[in-house]
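Quick one, tokens below. Sequence please?
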């Protein structure tokens, strides 16, 4: 899934690239409370621990 950033949060673009999802699906996850981003000024960020919580919540592949 790519490298994990050395900082504590992903930008939306970094998160979608890391997770392999599109921006539309990212905002669907936000609107359905599957991902809880934070705001820093005008920037939307996904904390690293939130990204890992989301990843861990996904079902295992059959």
């Amino acid at each position: 899934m790519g490298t994990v950033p050395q900082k504590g949060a992903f930008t939306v673009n970094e998160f979608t690239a890391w997770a392999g999802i599109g921006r539309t699906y990212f905002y669907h996850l936000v609107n359905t409370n599957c991902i809880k981003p934070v705001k820093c000024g005008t920037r939307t960020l996904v904390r690293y621990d939130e990204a890992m919580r989301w990843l861990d919540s996904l079902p295992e592949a059959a």
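The two ends are 19 Å apart (CA to CA). The chain has a mean pLDDT of 92.
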